[in-house]
Design a protein that fits this description.
150 residues; two-stranded antiparallel ribbon; 0% helix; globular; disordered N terminus
């Protein structure tokens, strides 16, 4: 399926309800602490935008929010705009290749991918406090699609 002779973004694998678990990594200051969340992903009509909603129980407390994924009409870059119940708003870019997905923001990034069966999505989030500093491991995360027999 194409629009203006361009393939639609590869968002379909995300669509559905997910149970999420993760572990904070050493640089987080909360090493070994666990968190859990529920995530849902829905394509808007036309398939150009993906809506992601989360409800996360992190070591520092609960957070809920929404994120919109899309693609710049004039380029190949994906964008992500997020908003949470703590008043935070953020913008990231995303890319996908044979190695998986990468999400990149000014102070955080993620790299990971889907299992061969498509029923799990996992990877590592990293952060940095200063644009000139090294990326530090923040948390590992695994999403498991609901309703899939393993």
């Amino acid at each position: 399926m194409t629009t203006n002779n361009r393939p639609l973004p590869p968002f379909q694998p995300f669509v559905g309800e997910w149970d999420t678990e993760g572990t904070m990594l050493p640089a987080s200051g909360k090493s070994g602490e666990h968190f859990h969340a529920t995530d849902s992903y829905e394509l808007l009509p036309g398939g150009h935008f993906l809506v992601h909603r989360w409800d996360a129980h992190m070591p520092e407390g609960r957070t809920r929010g929404i994120e919109i994924f899309g693609r710049d009409k004039h380029g190949d870059d994906f964008f992500m705009h997020s908003y949470d119940d703590l008043g935070n708003a953020g913008v990231m870019t995303a890319s996908v290749d044979d190695e998986g997905w990468t999400f990149l923001g000014e102070s955080m990034r993620f790299h990971g991918g889907f299992s061969e069966a498509g029923d799990m999505f996992s990877g590592i989030w990293e952060f940095r406090l200063d644009p000139e500093k090294t990326w530090l491991p923040w948390m590992s995360v695994t999403l498991k699609k609901r309703g899939v027999r393993r």
